[in-house]
Amino acid sequence: MSNEMTSLKASKAKLRKTVLRSLKQLTQEQIQLQCLYNDTRGPIVALIRKTARSIQERLFSLPEYQSAKKISVYLSMPSGEVSTRCIVEDALRKGKQVFVPYLYKESIDDGDTSPAVMDMVSIRSEADYNSLPRDTWGIPTPDPASISTRICTLSADSRSTNSGNLDMIVIPGVVFDRDRSRLGHGKGFYDLYLHRYHEYFRLQTSGRGMIENLQAPFLVGLALKEQLLPDNQAVPTTSTDWKLDALIVGDGGYHRRASP
């Protein structure tokens, strides 16, 4: 590893540690105030600020969300990031096909397994979503035994059915900047998935006159205001880091790429 890459990795780790430390200080109430939209299940909703649109309200108002038929949504941890429960429920109630992350290891010819990679697998209903077991991070996660019965975007299981391309991917992160760069937890799952996703559909469509019709999914990040860097700071990135199309922030901020 070059000195430049070593320095970049160290900068990312330091920034990630700093923001994670501040996120641990947030209460559930402080997080919910930035997230909730039209949710009548608790008194916390009455406290939502009137001067700024909540994260969920902004997301639900996006034309890309409203028109999306197939949407991938990360399933949130119990604390420290934007909750996506209401987003999953809203998408399912509106008849959208919802996909969520699933980590697995691929077998290699010599019988060994690869490092964990990510695919997106379908959620059939709210009951299905509510029945998902939680992993060691407290994140709802599809049971490996159920994968063969679900639709997968990259066919993580040879018995599964491929979904076709996604319209939108809602992406988590630890740190974001105003130029829509993100820093995750350091595993690279989303950057690798997006690379594999585009390569998969490029190969599926090449030679069949369809590549020009492949619509890239709209990438939208959700950030608590504590996760957004000041104007004079930027997330350190490399050529393998994917930039978001839009970033929605809990203080009402909205950052979007310019139209081509």
Q: Overview of this structure, please?
A:
The protein is α/β, with parallel strands linked by helices and 260 residues long. The chain has seven helices and eleven strands. The chain has helices spanning 3-23, 28-35, 55-61, 63-67, 85-93, 126-130, 189-205, and strands spanning 70-73, 97-104, 117-123, 151-152, 161-162, 168-171, 175-176, 182-183, 218-223, 246-249, 254-256. The strands form three sheets. The protein has a seven-stranded mixed beta sheet with strand order 3-2-1-6-9-10-11, with helices on both faces.
Helix count from the secondary structure assignment: 7
The proportion of residues forming helix, as a percent range, comes to: 25-40%
Number of strands: 11
Q: How large is the radius of gyration?
A: 19 Å
Series of H and E elements: HHHHEHEEHEEEEEHEEE
Intertermini distance: 36 Å
- Tell me the β content: 15-25%
Shape: globular
Sheet of most strands: 7 strands, mixed
Stretches with pLDDT under 50, minimum 5 residues: 38-52, 208-212
On the 0 to 100 scale, the average pLDDT is: 84
Overall SS class: alpha/beta
Strand arrangement across the biggest beta sheet: 3-2-1-6-9-10-11
Short key terms for the protein model shown above:
260 residues, alpha/beta, 7 helices, seven-stranded mixed sheet, 28% helix, 11 strands, two-stranded parallel sheet
Question: Topology of this structure?
Answer:
Blueprint: H1 3-23, H2 28-35, H3 55-61, H4 63-67, E1 70-73, H5 85-93, E2 97-104, E3 117-123, H6 126-130, E4 151-152, E5 161-162, E6 168-171, E7 175-176, E8 182-183, H7 189-205, E9 218-223, E10 246-249, E11 254-256
